[in-house]
Amino acid sequence: MYAVVADVERYPEFLPWVVALRVKSRMSEGPHEIAIAEMAVGFRALRERYTSRVTLAPAARTIDVVAIEGPFHRLENHWRFTPEGAGTKVEFRVVFEFSNRLLQAAAGSAFEKVLMKMTDAFEARAASLSQDQG
User: Fold this and answer.
1) Is 108 helix (H, G, I), strand (E, B) or coil?
2) Dist CA 56 CA 73 (whole Å)
3) Rounded Cα gap, residues 43 and 109, in angstroms
4) Prediction pTM value
5) CATH code of domain 2-133
6) Domain ranges in the chain?
7) Residue 28: CB partners within 8 Å, gap ≥ 6?
8) pLDDT tier at 39 (50, 70, 90 boundaries)?
9) What is the Cα–Cα distance from 105 to 43, expressed in whole angstroms?
10) Is the pLDDT of residue 122 over 70?
11) What is the sign of the dihedral through the CA atoms of 77, 82, 84 and 87?
12) Is pLDDT at 47 greater than 90 in this prediction?
């Protein structure tokens, strides 16, 4: 699961509403890989683009994302992956606040549905990749 979430360049292939993603830069900081990624998301006529700092820590099995430019007053998400038996326990936290209050109100009411749909997409992607390898 870590590899699926860490492969940000592939998000447009399987994540709903992600219409484009471009990694602007990559660098190493000790055991971490830092990527600056620009993502375009869209739903119907609404299109937004934002840039995030993605910190990948493969040995610790963590991924931390912080928006640094775009329509968010604050956007952070934190992933933790823990092996459990034949599978992986995935912990995910997200905090977001749009700069525009109207957009915040609209997004807030739909956020749980969006999160569930994206979770399903990550799980389906992982299942698809494991079938391809097995």
Assistant:
1) helix
2) 23
3) 15
4) 0.86
5) 3.30.530.20
6) 2-133
7) 34
8) very high
9) 16
10) yes
11) positive
12) no
